[in-house]
């Protein structure tokens, strides 16, 4: 058996090559094998095999969520209408507590925008088009820092004068977004923006650039960056999608949770795994995960790890 290792070259999505790698790194599951075959693998092939299962689980095996559907729909609408507006352009806010699948959702949106663009313009990358720009806000970041990140994403070799004004930075950012036909600007960890300056920068960006802004962060609608004062101006121009835990006391919630567990169950890359065990335990998994998809995914990952380990010891 030949297991091709997945080699990733970039640590962050905040550069164009890094983002493109993140958008395309969807490794397939390694071939299904029996216990006997697994234990017979040499140590090095076995560890490659385990790695491949892990990569598949972590990067490829995703379940559909109602929020994905909703935000895909909203975003598609904004991407069409924003370039046709001269003001009041709309954005999207993806908000939830820590570790709820926010970044994962934004990545899915980014991938779908990039793929749509690629379908319409197959040579887009060679033509220097950058449909998606991804920035991540660090602690206590300013609007100015945000603009510099956008500029560096699109023009990594540029040197910016140290004394450059916010207005100048914004003009450059807007021009670069325009030149590169950017449709989507993802601002992850947006809760790290604070005060009125970042909101006014984002508002101005929305006025001057037709790229649709997606703000992703922890409890954005109520947090200090966008929940009050100047920040409300940005919030009011955004549709809000909040990720929540699933309540299985409702029929709908139960059906959704069972569907997720069943998808993991069916696709678990374990030797001789007979789907059904996980699905039968969906309510117990709900209790253990506190109704959260991200925790369910983590439990499944741990399960895989344990399983691989125990077989490894037996071998
Ligand atoms: N749709 C999904 N299907 C499977 N796993 C998911 C999905 N969305 C999120 N996850 C899992 O949840 C974990 C946390 O997601 P992440 O997007 O990093 O959370 P946040 O940005 O809210 O802190 C990820 O490691 C991922 O494995
Ligand atoms: Mg995140």
TrEMBL record:
Top-level division of the source organism's lineage: Bacteria
Entry-linked SUPFAM superfamilies: P-loop containing nucleoside triphosphate hydrolases
Cited InterPro entries: P-loop_NTPase, TniB
Protein name in the entry: AAA+ ATPase domain-containing protein
């Amino acid at each position: 058996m030949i297991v091709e290792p997945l080699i990733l070259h970039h640590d962050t999505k905040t550069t164009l090559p890094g983002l493109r790698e993140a958008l395309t790194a969807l490794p397939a599951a390694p071939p299904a094998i029996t216990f006997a075959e697994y234990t017979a693998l040499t140590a090095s092939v076995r560890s490659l095999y385990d790695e491949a299962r892990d990569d598949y689980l972590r990067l490829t095996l995703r379940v559909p969520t109602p929020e994905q559907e909703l935000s895909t729909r909203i975003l598609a609408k904004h991407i069409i209408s924003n370039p046709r507006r001269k003001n009041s352009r709309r954005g999207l806010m993806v908000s939830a507590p820590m570790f709820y699948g926010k970044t994962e959702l934004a990545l899915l949106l980014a991938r779908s925008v990039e793929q749509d663009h690629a379908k319409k313009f197959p040579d887009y990358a060679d033509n220097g088009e950058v449909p998606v720009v991804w920035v991540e806000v660090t602690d206590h970041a300013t609007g100015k820092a945000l603009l510099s990140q956008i500029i560096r994403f699109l023009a990594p070799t540029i040197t910016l004068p140290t004394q450059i004004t916010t207005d100048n930075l914004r003009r450059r950012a807007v021009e670069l977004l325009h030149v590169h036909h950017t449709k989507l600007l993802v601002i992850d960890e947006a809760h790290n923006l604070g005060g009125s300056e970042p909101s006014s920068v984002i508002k101005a960006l929305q006025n001057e650039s037709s790229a649709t802004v997606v703000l992703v962060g922890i409890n954005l609608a109520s947090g200090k960056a966008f929940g009050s004062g100047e920040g409300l101006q940005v919030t009011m121009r955004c549709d809000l999608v909040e990720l929540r835990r699933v309540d299985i006391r409702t029929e709908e919630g139960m059906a959704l949770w069972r569907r997720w567990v069943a998808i993991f169950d069916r696709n678990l890359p374990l030797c001789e795994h007979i789907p059904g065990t996980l699905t039968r335990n969906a309510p117990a998994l709900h209790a253990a995960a506190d109704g959260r998809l991200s925790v369910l995914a983590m439990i499944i990952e741990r399960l895989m790890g344990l399983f691989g380990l125990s077989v490894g010891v037996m071998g």
